[in-house]
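Please, is this right?
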Amino acid sequence: MAIILIGFLADNFAQTGKPQWATIKTPNVRCWECKKRLEDYMAREVAQTESGIMKMQINLLSGTTRVQFRPDRVSLNYIQTAFANAGFDADDIKAEEDSYKKLPSACKRAEEGGGPKKGKPCHMQPF
């Protein structure tokens, strides 16, 4: 019985893909409000991907997001599309227009007047 159990557990571990890290360019995620919106949206996505998305680290100053995910459960393209559905550009995928329109002005693209303003950093949450 123990040999069967060990074989079953070994098979389950073998099927679990090794987690990977990917860095996604998210140029319009530059303030704490954008960060919170993306984190809240992705929290719902994590529940739908059966723990395929494991961790997410947003760097507001560089405009990048590192994501740890299991490629056997979710693809990088799925994650990028989820970012776009939340209203944010992700690498070469543009934000979904309706979601993008709902973002505050600080979370808009720099060429459209969004992002941090000179002398007014927005990467820190106000107290």
